[in-house]
Structures are given as structure tokens and as C-alpha cells.
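Limitations

Structures in this collection are predictions, not experimental determinations, and the ligand pose is part of the prediction. Treat each record accordingly. The example that follows, with S-adenosylmethionine as the small molecule, is included so readers can see exactly what is and is not provided: the inputs are given verbatim, and the output is the predicted complex.
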Amino acid sequence: MRPYLFLFGRTPKLAFLELTSCIPSASLLSEGVGLAQDSSITEDLASRLGGTVKVAEVIGKIEELSGAGLAKYIDTGDTGKKMVFGVSVYGIDGCDMHTLLVDIKQDIEKSGHTVRYVAPHEGSVLSSVVVAKQHVQELIAVRSENGYIIGKTLAVQEFEEWSKRDYSRPYADPKSGMLPPKVARMLVHAAVGFHGEGMTILDPFCGMGTILGEASLERCRVIGGDQDTHVISKARKNLEWLATVYQNIDISHSVFYAGDATGVSKHIREASVDAIITEPFMGTTKLGGGSITDAVKIRNIMKGLEKLYIGCLREWHKVLKPSGKVMIAFPEYHLNGKIFAVKKVIDMCEKLGYTNLVGPIEYGRPQAIVKREFYLFEKSSKINN
Ligand SMILES: C[S@@+](CC[C@H](N)C(=O)[O-])C[C@H]1O[C@@H](n2cnc3c(N)ncnc32)[C@H](O)[C@@H]1O
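Predicted complex:
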């Protein structure tokens, strides 16, 4: 059994959490690259993991990154048939990809084969779209302790499927914010790994139902709540649409209710939920200017949100099973170099009956005013009121 490389997309920290939740023996080889050797690994992982864009098989190791060193790993196939190759290098800055690719090509052509290469648009990594669309035989080189680990790409993420789920669903609500399906999938995996089948997942701030959709695709039973009845009807229709696109999902057990997230026990049986996975209400994002009034406004928003989240965690404890998980995004506002966070909630989490397993994991564009910080809590038996 050879080890596999997992090449992460834009959210490497969350992608690594997802990977280790699904394959606990996985380790971090380099920034953006996971390594795992496990009999459970199959190529279909590339279509299940939200944060991994390529899966490669480790095929060797070299000391120096050179054209001749890499050329021997390229499968040249039949002479006369033009093969397309590419290389992605991880873990070093400023690699001269052009020279490397030309050297590999010349080395291969010495043996009478005709090849063409595809170079990355920028940096040293080929996009999964290019690898798939141009049928590129891709080598992966990852800087490690004494040289480079070489892998061959086996599968790339099904980018068209992810994009269809993001942009073709009947209802969207960009104003209240929607998670990309890939992120929702990472959250589902972070909470339940690959063991989601038959588990009950609740999103009490379900919005358009992105998390519910990804959990359903992982064969979970889902419950969606939102205070807005119109939103609930849209989330339900989005889930029904998903079931027409992916016939292998069963949504017959899914439940929706309209109600406040601090009152979930009115709708859900005690100790019946395996995991709560949610991106809650995050306050307004319409803050401009950066004046002192905005800082005051943010402080007030944070106070309100702390109250809401503490009320939620207190209530959710009732419906969670023992050791049930809460995977949640908390907002972090960035204004003029100052950071405003819901610190009180994190400080109180033990008192509220939770153990903080992971977090914070930051998610958001570097310039964004409101970023998300993901946390994974586990229900503990003790509550200190
Ligand atoms: C950030 S959005 C969730 C978006 C969702 N993750 C998605 O991808 O579509 C937050 C949702 O929480 C709902 N909401 C706000 N306050 C609430 C409360 N106190 N209880 C329940 N739902 C609430 C809003 O109606 C909104 O749909």
C-alpha cells in the first residue's frame, strides 16, 4: 500500500481538519499538502472531500529538483502519440517552472517520444481544471526533509459538480451570506468524518440549506431550522432539487421547522442529534468608513451576538446526544487593525458543557471586514450554571 498525497484548495487549514477527521492517520507534509497511508483510501475520495482538489499516489523521492530526475517518472506510453505532461511543485517559493518543464521535455524527447507540457498560469501549481480538461499527466513534487517526494495525480476534484450545486440551485441569498458547498462539505466531514451515514445533523440557522445539502449527500438525516418561514421554504426546495440531480440521496427523513435557534428543543427531541453544523447569523456587514461610530456599532453587534450564541449553546446541549459535536462559524470583525470577536462565548464554552476540540480556524478573504472563525466543540457531561 503506497502513501497518498492530498493537495488542498484555498482553505488549507480547514481542508487538513477535514482530512484528519476522515482519515485520522493523515499528517501534514507541507503547507497545503496532506499525506496518508491507509487501506480505506480510494480514488473516490477526490469526489467526496470538499477541501482536497487533487489526490496523488506517491511514486518516489528525489534529492534535487531537476528535469532528468523528474523525467523518469513520466509515463511516455506509445511513441508517435503526443502525450501532455505537467508538474506542480509544493513547499518552495520561486521555482523556475519554465526551465524545469523544458528540461523534462528535452530529456524525454531524447528517447524518441513526442511530448507537450502545460505550465501553471502563475506560481508553481497547475489548477485541477487544467489537469482534467487538458488530460494532463501530472507529477507532484513536494519539498520534504531531504529532497522531494514525487507523486502522480490519480484524481482531481469534480469542479463542475461543486459549481453546479453552488450556482444552479433554485434559490440563493447572497445578502445573508451563503457558504460555498465545498466549505459546507468540509464542515460536515470535520464533525462526523466519513461516518455520517444515518446520523442526524441539525443546522438551526439553515439559510438556503447548503450544509443540509452536503450532509444529505453524505447520507446523513438532516433537520433544518431558520427563523424565517420564506427561507425555510427555499431551503426545502433546494434540497428537493438536489435529490433530483443526485438520485442516490434519500431526503425522505429530512425535517424543516421555522423557529428561533435558541428554542430548538421545542421542535427536536432531547438527545437525538449527532451533530449541529451551522453558520449562524453574523450581524450586519454594512459598515463603512471605519469611523469611531463603526467601532462602537461593532462592539454592540458583538454583545448581541454573544448573547445569541450563548443562548444557542445552552439550548443545543439538550438536543445533542452525549459527545455530540457542534461545528460552528463565529464572526470576527476587522476594522482599522482592530479585531472584534465573540470572546465571551469561547471563554464560556466549558461552563456551557462543551469541550473545545479545534479552533479557531480562520476563513475569509484577507481584506474582508467580517471573517469567519470555525470551532469544533464536543458536548461534555458537565454543565456549570
Ligand atoms: C448566515 S445565514 C446562513 C446561511 C447558510 N449557511 C447558507 O449557506 O445558506 C443565517 C441565517 O440565520 C437566520 N437567522 C437569523 N437569526 C436567527 C435566529 N435567531 N434563529 C434562527 N435563524 C436565524 C437568517 O434568516 C439566515 O437565513
